[in-house]
Structures are given as C-alpha cells and as structure tokens.
Predict the 3D structure of the following.
Amino acid sequence: MSTATRRLALWAACAAQLMVVLDISVVNVALPSIRADLSLGGVAATWVALAYGLGFAGVLLVGARLADVLGTARVLGWGIALFTLASAVGGLATEGWTLIGARVVQGLSAAVVSPATFTLLTTAYPEGPARVRAIAVWTAVSLAGGGLGTVTGGVLTDLVSWRAVLLVNLPIGAAVALAAVALRWWTPDDRRGGRISLAGAVLATGGFTCATYALSVAGTPGSAVPFAAAGSASVLLFALLVAEQRRTPHRLVPAALLRDRPIVRGNLATALTAVCFQVGLWYFLTFRMQEQLGYTPLQAGLAFLPLTLGMLAVNTWATPRLMRRVPARALVCTGAAVAGLGLVWQALADSGPFALTILAPSVVVGVGGGLLNTPLATIVTTGVPAEQAGAASGLMNTGKQFGGAVGLAAATAVAAGAGTDRAAFLLMAAALGAVAVLAPRIRRRRAEPAPVSGAPGR
C-alpha cells in the first residue's frame, strides 16, 4: 500500500472516529434548547442523549465482525453514509420522536463505523513504529472527542442553533464516504468471507442493549423496576449467548482471542481505563464547573481545553517515541498512576482559583491519559491475525463502552451516597490504580517489538 493511500486511510479513520465520539457528548449542552424548541418532556429529552448510547453499545460486537466478513472500506463507507443521513434527519426534525429515532440510527451506524476505523489502521499499517504513530493519532482523536464535543456543542448552540450540532456532520460525513470509496479502489479486497450467526447477533445485541439501559437508569428515582427487569434480561440473554457461541462455527469473538492472556488482560485494563476517560471524567467535571464553580456552558467547555490539549500533546508526540524505548506495559502502569494522582487532586480541589481547581489537576490527568491509552490499544491488537482484526477491534471498543457505562453508573451511585462528587473522582482514581497493578502482568507478546536495548529512558 502506498504512503498516500495510508495517509488517506489515517485521515478517514480519524475523521470518522471524531464524528462518532463527538456525537456522544455534543448533544448534551444543546439539550435545554432542544427541549424548549421541540416541547419535549423531561423523559423524552433524556432519551435524546440515551438513544445514541443504546444503539452504539448494543451492536458494537456484531458491527465489528462486519468488517471481517464484508471488508473494512466497504463497511466504513456504508456505515458513515447511514450515520450522515441520520444526522440530517435529526438536525431537521420537528418532532421529538423523529429526533430520538435519528439518534438511535446514529448509534447503530456508529457501532459499525468505530471498530471499522481501527481495523482500517491495523490493516493499512504493518506492525511497528508506523502503526504505533497511526494508533496514537486515532487514540488522541478518541480521547479529545469528549472535550471537543462539549466545546463544539456550546459554541454551535449559542451562536447558530442546536440543529447545527447535528448538521455539521454532513460535510464531514460526505468527505469520509468519498474517501472510503477511494480506499475500496486503491486497497486490496480484505473480505474474509464467512458468516455472522444470526442467533448470536440477536442475543448479543439484546444482551448489550439491556445491560446498557440498566446501567443508564441505575440510581435514578423510580428506576428499581426497570433496572431489575433490564438487568435480569441482560443476564439471561448473555447466558444464552455463551451457550450459542460454544456450538456455532461462526463466533462473534474467535476463541483464539479469548484464550490470549495479553489480549484479555489488555481489554480488562481498557475497560477499567474507560471508567474514567470514556464518560465519567467529562460528566462530573462538567457538573462541578457549572453547578459548584458557576461557569457558563461555554466557559465550562473552554475549561476542558487544558485536559484535552494535554492528552493530545502527550499521546501524539511523546508516547510514540517512548514506546520505542520503554515496554508498553510500563507506560500503561506509569500513565495510570499519574492520572490517578491527578484525579485524587481533582477530588480534593473543589473550590478556589481556576489554576488550582481545574488547570493543574487537568494537566496531570491529561499527561497520564496520554501515556497509557495508545500502549493499551497496541497491546490488544499486536499479533492479531488479519482475519480477526475486526473482532479484536470490536472487543476493545466494547470494553471501552461498557467500562464507561459501568463506571458512570457506579460513580453516580457513590457520589449520591456520599453527598459529594469527591467520591466519584476517587472511584475513578481507584479504577486507574487497578490498571497500574494489572499492567505489569500483561506480558509482551511475541509479535510485539522489544524496546531498543540500552536506549535512553530505560
């Protein structure tokens, strides 16, 4: 594959991933305006945000297998086209049910697009420094998306309209779709054939959707019955899924991946990392800044810039260079410890000047997050056969989504029980502490390049 084609693949993967991640958070700031404009009740307004997450998390594992079966560029093109169409329908909606339906379709297509973007990188770039740099850029986009979504949502809602929050996807989506078409022509056909078990797809989608819903309502007033019903349904569906996957020759996750200890431990560490970086950090910082510190939505969005820029700088510039000299698991351990200390600082600094309450702890958390996420993504994909690249990407993305969902539910519960958001930040710090303990047990795989012997920084 030529250098130009690889660069196009990197651009398409990052632009598509940015759209997917932005739409997790970009609507949150716009919700009051959406509720007023469409005359939505409180429950309907909540579903505008919830519908995307349910569609996204529910289909991730199934969507990831499509790239292996149908081809990465083809799946990316069709997925991003559907995502863009749903964005247009949502941006032009005049009824609440239309907007909620569009958000569901956005989530479903995002579940296909997100793993396809990562699979595109692992197939376009051979293992080595070039792939590490590409993954670092993709990871930086994924990490920065939460903060950028908050800023973008505030700016577009204040200066244009809440509709612009969704309609801004149209030109970007069109460009990514065209890039995907070009990649289909310029890259080898990577379709692996095979099938996806229909029963497995239905059971996995139902189980993950019920689990996501149960976690999203946990701890809210009057949620005991829906939480118990959805939780019980998810347990039953997952039990049936395990039994079905043992019998079928068309598994959603190849057995070889589940037997690979570095991949299993790496994905567990990914899920624990997501307790902080997927949703929880952005969620609790947003409320602290607006409710405790009196920031406006736009000021709160801009206050995320130190955290966002810190992670971007470390992740894209320092981490790839360090990975040439330092084992990936050592960087994961160090990054988790640094970010955990930053979260402890954030928990304690709930009043005072901006420099001490937001700026300094955010920089520390950003440095730690920038150090650990790319090595983790590399660990769970190094040495994976090409025909299993989509499944490995789906496993990683599923770990992120459900780590984030479980983390948010748990952090919300402990914060409510303690009567302060300090408990939430300390819980996230504890999750990263567990990552720091787990990381040394993730042994280097044979296909993973060893650090340069005697290089500086060892």
Observations:
- Residues 70 and 105 are 20 Å apart (CA to CA).
- Residues 3-38 form the longest helix (36 residues).
- Confidence is low (pLDDT under 50) at residues 452-458.
- The two ends are 34 Å apart (CA to CA).
